[in-house]
Amino acid sequence: MELGRISGTIVATQKNERLSGFKLLVVDLMKMDGVKTGTNLVAVDTVGAGSGEIVIIVRGSSARQAEGMAAIPVDATIIAIVDSIEMEGKIRYRKSDDSWRDG
User: Fold this and answer.
1) What is the 3-state secondary structure (H, E, C) of 29-52?
2) Is residue 83 within 8 Å of residue 33, measured between CB atoms?
3) Residues 52 and 98: beta-carbon distance below 8 Å
4) Which residues of the chain register pLDDT less than 50?
5) Which of 12, 49, 57, 94 is exposed most, by the fewest CB atoms within 10 A?
6) Which domains does the chain have, with CATH numbers?
């Protein structure tokens, strides 16, 4: 699983028919401290994520194991919207104020 922030959407009027009804989102991958890795990808949204939200992504065969994705041609799936991140007993991120905190 990987962490990322939604930075955009992809509109594709011509696509595999099994992708109909799914939203395609651009995700900027990030480290656990909120710093972007410089890598972004397109992921299928299964949880209703929106612009700017922090999400958890799975890739490869795991992407097809998400609910309803078994027969869909995907390599990256958004499986969760992050509310908070706690590490070593300290809150590092909170969605409510979209803030990252150092150790």
Assistant:
1) EECCCCCEEEEEEEEEECCCCCCC
2) no
3) yes
4) none
5) 12
6) 2-100 (2.40.50.220)
